[in-house]
Structures are given as structure tokens and as C-alpha cells.
Amino acid sequence: MNTFLNEKSNGKKMVDKVFKAAVAANIAKEKHGDKVVNATLGTLFDENGNFVALKSVWGPYETIKDVQKAKYAASIQGNPGFRDAVYNWLFGGLEEKIECEIIATPGGAGAISSTLKNILSPGQTVLKPSQGWGPYKTMAVECGLTLTDYNMFKDGEFDLVDFKNSLNTVMDNQGKVLVIINDPCHNPTGYSLRPDEWDDIIVILNNLSKKGPVILLNDVAYIDYTVQGDSWKNHFAKYNKLEKNVMTIIAFSCSKTLTAYGARVGAQIVISKDKVQLETFKDAAIYSARSIWSTVNNSAMELFSLIAHDSYLLSIYKKEKQKYINLLEERAQIMISEAKEVGLELYPFVEGFFVTIKVPDNKEKEALNLKLQKANIFTVEVDGGLRIAICSVPKRKLQGLSKRILDLM
Ligand code: PLP
Fold it and tell me: Which residue among 17, 187, 217, 268 is best mutated to probe the pocket of ligand 1, counting the most ligand atoms within 8 A of its Cβ?
């Protein structure tokens, strides 16, 4: 049959579960007003239901000159000041140096999809967490890749045994492994790996690298919302313990970090002891950038550099952001304690923007979601459960929510 689209693209259709659920919630809100619990959106809202745009970020933005806002970026790889700022943001507190290359990308999504595209060939398999961010799938399919899950949890902890076995199976099949981790503050569960779990992961990756190249893609979209604050970033020193046959790509995003979701700025930070491979990856990433999005938003890169390089601006930014980390903790506390009290099963949670109700069976999950929608509670269907975005629901609406949900199960 003749079609205008090519074989691969003909029939492609994006059904974004988050946006779909958000639309349903907005329609309900028009009818039922404040009764509606809209727990769909992964962006910060305050206790009055207002979208949070940090003043310590968007105030300084006004000082950026029009020409900077109008200009193209200084280079396809990203402005040198921005790259330097990203290095210091992530690794500035470390005693040791991290050998890396940094490439600016349109958000974390740009960093992840460019990595998938350049690391694996069509037909190959990428590993992702069993409970993970939905677009990993879309991006993999767009690159012609298949996906396989490693199981996230066993007995309330990270399932290291399944992680090791799943990675080994893929290595034995295709001689190379690309695995996505989304730590800290995993979306959708809110899990953060413990330091000892990370130590075990490092050992697993090093051992696996004796069989073939191993690529760890750590998506750190929520890194600036861990309750540990900047001390979490000491974690990155562990990447220096990785063998030469392991490459790490950190997918960094300014979306949550700066409440700058629409500004579309992020970065790939590529770490490897193999300097030749590091250079080769950088060249390929720059080539992809030029051929897909060209350059990244200049004013957003300038904004990030401005805040990161100015100790006064940085301190007020950190103070303002801390208020929301505290708020997230308070909201989580309500959800977690009440869920426990009434016996609503959640996936293991530590911190962050989301909690997820455990509903492994797809039919039961869809049925529950419909019942919840009828009761004006809007969540997002994710693998193995229903996600509640505590980042966007005020405390007063979280109170009693666990019981209301359980009563409908
Ligand atoms: N990774 C995760 C887990 C996310 O939840 C998001 C955004 O929701 C992103 C990456 C990427 O966001 P962006 O492309 O806006 O930086």
C-alpha cells in the first residue's frame, strides 16, 4: 500500500498517559471544582494550587539581555560557561576530579534519547526498571530498540539479584549492555538507592564489563530534590571506580532543578576511563544534536550559568528550593503514614515527587483508575500501579486520600 509516511513511522501515535489523565482531571475540575484531586502532573504546585516558578530563578532571568535571549548558543556542544556550571553543579563538592565530556541537550529527554540512539543499533535491547518513566519506551521504540525490564524491588529493597541476572542475559545475547537507572527519587516510585546498593551495582557492572562494553545511563532528573541535599552528589565519586570497559552517561535536566520545564535545557555528562571512547561519544552526540535539534536554548543556558556561578544567587536559590523539598517531605509523610495505617500497599518510597500504589494486574489497575476518576481522584497509570504526584497535590487533599482509595479497591 502506498502511504506518505515511511514504513517505520506509518501508524505511530503518541498516547501520553500523563497528559491524557491531566486533561480528564481538568474537565472534572470545571464541573466539580475543588473536590477534584489532580495527582497527575509531575510539576511542583504550592499549597494554594499555584504552579511553582522559583523567584530565585525567574527573577535573575529578567537581568539577561535581549540579545542573549535572541542569540543562538555559542556552540553545538553547549556554551562553555554552561558546561563548566554543570560540572560544578554535579561534581564541585568532590575531592577528586571526574574525567568527563559534557554536551548540552534539550532537557533530560534529549540526553536520554540521544544516548539510546548512539549506543545501541536498531534491533538491540535496552534495560530499564520495571517501574520507570513512560517515555523510556517511546524513545527506545523511536530508535528501533526493544526493551527489557529488570525487576526493581524484592522484600522492600532494590532487587540486585534480578538486576545482575537481567544484565547478564542481555550481555550474553548481544555482547553489550545499556542499562537505565533513575536515581535518586525514582519516577514513579520515589525510591532512592542506598549507598550500599550502589556499591553492589558498581561491582556488578565491573564484573559484567569483562564480557563486553557496559553503559550505565543514570537519569538524575530529580537530583536537586533529594532530602540529602548536595551531599547526595558525593555519590558520583563511585563512578571513578568503574572499569575502563564501562561508560557512564548522566542525564541531567534543568526542568525540575530550576523549575524551568519549558526552557528545555539539560546535559549528557559522559564519564569513562577510556579517553578515545569518550571523545568518540562526544563527537557522535554533537553530530546527533546538529542533525536533530541543532543547538540548545541560549538564554536558559545563560540563566543556569548565572545562578551556578554567583554565590549570592545560588544561596537564595537553594534556600527557596529547600522550602519545596520540605513541603514534599511533609506531603510524603501524610501519604506514607496514612497508607500504612489503612493498609494501602505502595512501592518502596524514600523521597521525591511521586508515590505509586501497587496494582500489578493491568485489568485491576485500569478498573481502579476508572473508579477513582468517578470519585474525582486523578492518578496516572504506570507499570504495575497508579502514580500519585505528591508534587502537585496540597496536603489537605492528601489527608484521607489513602482511605478513600482503599475503599474503592
Ligand atoms: N526523567 C524523568 C524520570 C522524568 O520524570 C523527566 C520529566 O518528567 C525527565 C527525565 C525529563 O524531563 P525533561 O526532558 O523536561 O528534562
Answer: 187
- Shortest-distance Cα residue to atom 12 of ligand 1: 108
Q: What is this structure's pTM?
A: 0.97
Residues with Cβ < 8 Å from 259, sequence gap 6 or more? 43, 44, 52, 53, 54, 57, 58
User: 106 alpha carbon to ligand 1 midpoint, in Å?
Assistant: 11
322 CA to centre of ligand 1 in angstroms: 20
- Owner of C-alpha cell 494550587: 49
Q: Measure 107 CA to ligand 1 centroid, in angstroms.
A: 7
Residue 175 DSSP SS3: coil
DSSP 144: T
Does ligand 1 lie within 6 Å of residue 132's CB atom? no
Q: Considering only CA atoms, which of 303, 354, 36, 367 is closest in space to residue 190?
A: 354
Q: What is the pLDDT of residue 1?
A: 65
Say yes or no: CB of residue 261 within 6 Å of ligand 1: yes
Q: Which of 189, 256, 258, 390 to mutate to test the pocket of ligand 1 (most atoms within 8 A of CB)?
A: 256
CA angle 119, 265, 137 (to 5 degrees): 45
Q: Is 141 exposed, middle or buried (0-12, 13-18, 19+ CB in 10 A)?
A: middle
Q: What is the pLDDT of residue 21?
A: 87
Question: How far, in Å, is the centroid of ligand 1 from the Cα of 115?
Answer: 14
Task: Pick out the chain residues at pLDDT < 70.
Answer: 1
Q: Are 259 and 53 in contact (CB under 8 A)?
A: yes
Closest Cα partner for 331 from 406, 389, 257? Answer: 389
